[in-house]
Amino acid sequence: MKNLLALATLTATLPLITPTAQAQTVPPGGSAADEAAVKAVLTKYQQAVQKLDTTGTSRLFAANSQVFESGSVEGTYRHYAAHHLGPELREFRAFTFSDYKAAVQVDGPYAFATETYIYTINLKKDPKEKEAKAPIVRRGVATSVLRKNASGQWQIMSTHSSARTPRSKK
């Protein structure tokens, strides 16, 4: 009788336990498709910067995203694009990335990305100057956290980038 009572209790509580148990047994890694989708978001953003145009890039970022750049808290991406990135891009003649590498780790609905690259900025020529300024070349790194939203799209929640002058090759 005790065993029958225990079995009845277990059967009655099993539906309450199952969703929690299932949530905890989801494998931590993501699929190759998720990794590719995350890299596609990063690439779309990179391409927009190279085109010197942030039009439509806000959809790549969560509404409450946070942008950190070289020691500064820039606020949400919309604020950063309107008050920092956009005005800067208007001063550039070209912005190019080279030696780009991205590593992505997907863990459920979150992804963690590290990008390394060299970027070169060519400034527009100042009409008052005889020659254009020398290109700005920097070695950069960015780390980003992305989340898959309710409609299944990956969006950047947080991104932090920094750069420095590349060291001379000896």
Round the Cα radius of gyration to an integer and report it: 23 Å
Distance between the termini: 83 Å
Shape: globular
Main sheet specs: 6 strands, mixed
- Number-wise, the strands total 6
Q: What's the helical proportion of residues? A: 25-40%
How large is the share of residues in beta strands? 35-45%
Overall residue-averaged pLDDT value: 85
Strand order of the largest sheet: 2-1-6-5-4-3
Class by SSE composition: alpha+beta
Instruction: Point out poorly predicted stretches.
Output: 1-27
**What is the overall number of helices?**
3
Order of helices and strands: HHEEHEEEE
Q: Which key terms come to mind for this protein?
A:
alpha+beta; disordered N terminus; 170 residues; 6 strands; single chain; 6-stranded mixed beta sheet
Short structural summary:
By secondary structure, this protein is an alpha+beta fold.
Protein model, in words:
The protein is an alpha+beta fold. The chain is built from 3 helices and 6 strands; from the N terminus they run ααββαββββ. It has helices at residues 2-24, 32-50, 77-90; strands at 61-69, 72-75, 92-107, 110-123, 136-148, 154-164.
Secondary-structure map:
Elements: H1 2-24, H2 32-50, E1 61-69, E2 72-75, H3 77-90, E3 92-107, E4 110-123, E5 136-148, E6 154-164
